[in-house]
Write a structure and sequence with these properties.
The chain is of the alpha/beta class. Helices cover 35% and strands 21% of the residues. The longest helix is centred in the N-terminal third of the chain and has 12 residues. The two termini are 24 Å apart. It binds S-adenosylmethionine. The site of S-adenosylmethionine has 22 residues, from α4 and α7.
């Protein structure tokens, strides 16, 4: 079998080390790092099943876990898995890429295998491996429970240099190809209007997907 393609995050190498360091500093200074998670929390009932796909150093998963949700955090970068476990030992992290989140892996982990909400924020969708963009969205759709939704957030301008630059039209076309429908679009996690800087989209499954 051919090796899996490297994600843009892996290709970025040392250029991406700043993320973990910056959030470690923000957390220890008491800064607010919970904007994405506060919005996620409003989107679900109590004790919801939530997947944090590309959970990084764990800030979003930890906030949601601490509010009583059943959270599965998945993160393929082992140095971030280690940082997450050290910073938020209460959160279990699966050392997995989104495409590695098979039904078998999820059931072996003993947590939920389908989700009321998938959180895929902080440019994760712009860091996946080239050529896997639609496959990743399809896998996230397959992981939704009936009525489940996906919260996605990424920079349109001024984002990390190693991430993919996406236009709204490009992402809309990939979303449609993956059998997903756009429920809402905003310009930030505070629900500001759509702008050309940052995209926050809420997606749900197309009831009649082509794939
Ligand atoms: C800027 S970090 C954001 C982390 C976290 N979501 C946050 O907001 O703090 C981008 C993350 O995308 C992850 N990533 C890239 N490709 C991925 C994939 N195919 N599956 C899961 N995570 C992926 C990287 O490992 C990295 O942790």
């Amino acid at each position: 079998m051919a090796d899996a393609p490297l994600s843009r995050w892996e290709r970025g190498g040392e250029k991406n080390l700043g993320y973990g360091r910056r959030f470690a500093e923000l957390v220890s200074s008491g800064a607010d790092v919970d904007g994405e998670a506060r919005l996620a929390d409003t989107l679900v009932a109590r004790r919801a099943r939530i997947l944090d796909a590309g959970s990084g150093m764990g800030r979003v998963a930890a906030y949601l876990h601490d509010r009583g949700h059943r959270v599965v955090a998945a993160e393929p970068d082992l140095s971030l898995v280690e940082q997450s476990r050290r910073t938020y030992p209460q959160v279990e992290v699966l050392p997995q890429d989104i495409l590695g989140l098979t039904d078998e892996v999820l059931s072996a982990a003993g947590g939920p295998a389908e989700f009321d909400l998938v959180v895929c924020v902080g440019n994760v969708i712009a860091f996946v491996a080239e050529g896997t963009e639609v496959a990743v969205l399809i896998r996230l759709r397959q992981l939704l429970a009936p009525g489940g939704r996906i919260l996605v957030g990424f920079h349109l301008q001024g984002g990390p240099e190693t991430a993919r630059r996406m236009t709204l039209d490009q992402f809309a076309s990939e979303v449609g190809e993956a059998g997903l429908v756009v429920e809402h679009r905003f310009g930030g996690y505070d629900l500001r209007p759509v702008d050309d800087q940052y995209a926050v989209w809420l997606l749900c499954a197309d009831p009649d997907p082509a794939r």
